[in-house]
């Protein structure tokens, strides 16, 4: 039987939802502006346009919530006594022992979702820096990993920059 993790951490639903909605709204505004330029403002039917905007906005909110819920449910970070588990770029679950982590590289994924990429000889783990309980995760990693571990150093250095969610 496989060892159970000491702790499992979920992504922050709030952070995921807000970032996905921000990108949705940006795309929606670009479409509305392109439509206004194409048809001309004088040819737009504002009552119909407002109803369409409301329906589309509600649809985007529901879609963003559904997408965020699926991502939060699937992408979890597991912390074990001797290793950490997470997902690679393609979504496959990977594990690395604390000593295998060679370096940690920051990545700003989708402009608003900070991610740390844990490099080892065998694989790369994309570690989200927007976990629901980031303070507990940081504390646990700093306790379990050696003080000179690249991940412990990265989390300690970036503690001031992380936004609690």
Structure description:
The protein is α+β, with helices and mostly antiparallel strands and 165 residues long. It has 4 helices and 7 strands, in the order E-H-H-E-E-E-E-E-E-H-H. The chain has helices spanning 13-39, 46-74, 134-144, 150-157, and strands at 7-10, 76-79, 83-87, 93-97, 103-109, 113-119, 124-128. A 4-stranded antiparallel β-sheet has the order 1-2-3-4. The longest helix has 29 residues, at 46-74. The radius of gyration is 20 Å and the shape is elongated. The mean pLDDT is 85.
Order of helices and strands: EHHEEEEEEHH
Largest sheet: 4 strands, antiparallel
End-to-end Cα distance, whole Å, is: 34 Å
Helix content: 40-55%
In angstroms, what is the radius of gyration? 20 Å
The average pLDDT value, as a whole number, equals 85
Which runs of at least 5 residues are low in confidence (pLDDT < 50)?
A: none
Strand order of the largest sheet: 1-2-3-4
Structure annotation, total helices: 4
Structural class computed from helices and strand pairing: alpha+beta
Label the overall shape.
Answer: elongated
SS strand fraction: 15-25%
The number of E-state strands comes to 7
In terms of topology, how is this protein built?
Blueprint (H helix, E strand, L loop, with lengths): L6 E4 L2 H27 L6 H29 L1 E4 L3 E5 L5 E5 L5 E7 L3 E7 L4 E5 L5 H11 L5 H8 L8
Antiparallel strand pairs: 1-2, 2-3, 3-4, 5-6, 6-7
